[in-house]
Write a structure and sequence with these properties.
3 copies of one chain form a homotrimer. The first copy, chain A, is an alpha+beta fold. Helix content of chain A is 28%, strand content 25%. The two termini of chain A are 18 Å apart.
Chain lengths: 401, 401, 401
């Protein structure tokens, strides 16, 4: 009644490096359950920004697949993450998506947990019962420049070194001074891996994203290379690092401990990711001007950011079921910016709203075709190199006990 | 393409007595199919009251999981239950939920069955065809004081002795003189076992059921014990037995042949399970007054009743799919009571309507949490002892061929 | 994570010839996946009429189960069928149900395929990439008197000889001069095999199809035989063959290469399959009058036609999921007939609209009953002989690698 490792090995051996994954990775319910257990539950997940829970007791839930996490600021002001599963008979402990709590009381039998996750007491559990053993399971937490990353399982990829390297590069953006001004969810009837793969390559950008391709050179390695030297001069001038940090795939310190930073040029006339090229919000952090660039940042395997000079966009591809995924897009501007005066949400979100709608469509069609028994994984293009790394890591994770 | 006993044994061995069952028992589609086949199809199910089919030919269907039963009064006036599956190519024979029939004609090829289940004739089936061999499969039937219990499979738990013991205890209520006045169904996105477990313990009553807890002492063993002697005097005075009958779990005559009877006190001021404590309907059977008590009755493993002095409520937790269950609540009063004059349905059903809505919510959250890969079955409280017995029996049933 | 042949063999051995198939064939998701892979992907499927794509570039999609086919007329005017799966990473290439195309451009990365299926070029795929190896996978195509049949897999049943035998029999109807005037889809919550079985026998016609049974003698072998000689005289007189062609089951040249032709009498007063017996459209092909007959034609295992003197009806039972099937009914008249003047669509479609609604109902109830663990496959009637042949062939197909 559970998946059999024998089959999994067969399946793994069917994958030819440099090619897409075989069909079953995207169609099997047992494989989906495995993905949650082996991949999502053991990797760093970006769940939000610390400005979303400023005070002790402030919390929000982050749900994916079969899992639910409580992200909460405790009485000491530290951010913690708890598995939202009562230690008694397993009920969800917290059922509101966000709020302010003094304690978490399970709605079933009223087992009551501190903000720190400790069980206060087990009502009528008898004399032998030791509450100290029955606190909420803790997920690991890292707050990187205000960005909250959690890893539900025990063996979290060791991210510290990568973040140390990344920190000076992103410092000028002052992520810690951002606030979330809009979150959108685009449900797509496809496996989460197809959504991640979609984000990992810009081979599709020219044909599939008219608006993005008009302003972003990433769609064309040649054009990007040609415009890079001029950008690097401008970036340096406004206070931004121009080096690339690639600690991903084989260059990561440990599997899953990936970090990536690269600033690349927008086309002439574009100061930021806006419809007309004009600014959308006040400059981030310590920037002294618009350099006409955009920065790709990734942390771990599952978390992606695109940082313009005046706003940042975060992306997550949250599994719901074997062929149901929510694309989360999160827009952030500096915390002291004011809607109406300093930015306009409709303008701010325009580009990645239309681009995400495109992605929903193409990922959906990708899944439909992959479902065919006649799907034969084809060769990846040079521009899809990051997908190869993703496959390598993914296969490593699901193969471990 | 079917479930593998090997896995099942692994799974069984993972269960630690005194703790909740492991996740897979509540999440596996194969296990659900197994539950229907091994548990529901081989146990006594309370399907209704004989007053619902007073005349020969009167029938109703009872559906659960993948199964359907025809409950019918035959020409001799006896109540029978047939598997609602044509013996030819398997069509449902009867497709209306209730009605009056002279025969059952399969809508596909018109194979025609008597009320007794016998096949009248097989149209154009050739000379060698013997209709006597192709009657509808019969479920076993017991009518206990008007309550219809059926067991679809052949090896029904031997209930006779338990019902003999139970009969004098429930006799004063005159179940045979009840009528059903309202049935409600509360669909809950959870496995049926979580719904049964919920009914089996009142550890959750205090935190989860404000209205019930105000009037029923079952939520507190201490308070119940304190008020019990006074109740027993009052019960005896109105003609009700005060003994407890516990032929359940290890005390049952045979596995699945369980019976239970216990009258427990309501809080002062409550004559019955009403909003204000006042009577809801005429006294049942031979009762001479309100004793301020309520009786828990259970028959077999799956069937529960709560009997107040003036009405009875029946509960079933009907599996639909691995995480879909219908909570059935059935209200009964004496057959000669008249709506409007003797009882008011809205008042009558108030308590268990609000209580069932609470249960729907907490069972739903229980399933959501149990779905997590991080769910670790926790220790049961003393007040949850009946769940232990249920697990023991359940494991016995699914382990047998 | 995939189905195990061991279980399949167990399941096959459970089937008793002359009886219905066991439950699991209709309930298992793994078996459904197997059915698509082993049966549908390796048999001839009638997808439409060539008049639907008269010009080069005209195309339509035909979808079933997890599969999608592009049916297109190429630049040379030939009809081709391509698997609608990009050879790169598997996206659906064509996403509109029908239209006119110059090339097929994958919406994901713009791999561009000719109408012939060849890959024009692989954008940025590097110097080693040979586009000639990455054309769309081709399904085999036969156009039989205008009817388009496709077989997605390589080992198509060898249909040529059967079609040679069939050709002179259907010639008088001039199928090549038909046009499709209406298509209806009746979704039924049942496995596709139950829908095929339903079409394969008329044992159910008398009890289940009041309208059909009033006019068609097929419901009664005795009445059909009695009226046959007179029909044969009339058929000959109007130019129609009166022989039966039965190259099905054991009489097929090869498994799956089946063909069948038989004209049978309508009841007196019925010139065609109309409500009042009167003509619905101009006489087909070279017919010189109404003979009061109807012709059953089948090609391969999955494709059925009923040909009246003035119109033809095609039937397909298209799998969607293990218990979701679309019944397709397609009405055709001569291409030069004009709606309003020569035929009226409401009148034309009346009989098979009401009959298909009946079928939806009985097939649905069949599935509901078959889902029961108590379903025991029963004996087939003499009138259900064709189901036996279907089972034999089906078991052969799913047992092969």
């Amino acid at each position: 009644m559970t998946s059999r490792p024998g089959d999994l090995n067969d399946l793994m051996s069917k994958h030819r490096p440099g090619y897409a994954l075989p069909r079953e990775f995207y169609t099997s319910q047992a494989m989906f359950d495995h993905d949650i257990d082996k991949v999502w539950n053991r990797n760093w997940i970006w769940v939000g920004h610390e400005s979303q829970i400023p005070e002790p007791g402030d919390y929000f839930l982050f749900d994916y697949g079969t899992e639910s996490l409580i992200i909460v600021r405790d009485r000491q002001g530290d951010i913690r993450a708890h598995l939202n599963v009562c230690r008694h008979r397993g009920s969800r402990v917290c059922t509101e998506g966000a709020g302010k709590a003094r304690v978490f009381v399970c709605p079933y039998h009223a087992w009551t947990y501190e903000l720190s996750g400790e069980l206060r007491a087990g009502r009528d559990m008898g004399a032998d019962f030791d509450p100290a053993k029955w606190g909420l399971l803790a997920a690991q937490v890292i707050v990187f420049q205000g960005m909250i990353l959690v890893c539900p399982g025990d063996d979290a990829p060791p991210l510290a070194t990568a973040l140390e390297q990344l920190a000076p590069l992103t410092a000028p953006f002052a992520f810690e001074d951002l606030k979330v001004v809009h979150e959108a969810r685009y449900p797509v009837p496809a496996n989460w891996k197809l959504a991640v793969e979609n984000y990992l390559e810009c081979y599709h950008c020219a044909p599939a994203h008219q608006e993005y391709a008009r302003s972003h050179t990433l769609k064309s390695p040649q054009q990007m290379a040609a415009l890079m030297p001029a950008l690097q001069e401008r970036s340096a001038a406004v206070g931004l690092p121009t080096v690339e940090l690639n600690m991903t795939g084989p260059d990561a310190i440990a599997p899953g401990a990936d970090a990536y930073y690269r600033r690349y040029p927008l086309f002439e006339g574009y100061k930021t990711g806006s419809r007309d090229g004009e600014p959308l919000a006040p400059l981030l952090g310590s920037l002294t001007g618009f350099d006409g660039g955009a920065t790709d940042v990734s942390i771990g395997i599952l978390n992606f950011f695109l940082v313009y000079s005046d706003h940042a966009v975060g992306y997550r591809f949250v599994p719901r079921n074997v062929q149901e995924t929510d694309i989360h897009v999160v827009w952030m501007v500096r915390k002291d910016a004011e809607e109406g005066r300093d930015y306009n949400t409709d303008d701010l979100t325009w580009l990645w709203h239309v681009t995400s709608q495109d992605d929903e469509r193409i990922i959906r069609h990708n899944q439909a075709g992959v479902n065919s028994h006649f799907f034969r994984p084809g060769p990846l293009a040079e521009m899809e190199w990051a997908i190869n790394d993703f496959y390598d890591y993914y296969k490593k994770m699901i193969a471990t006990a």
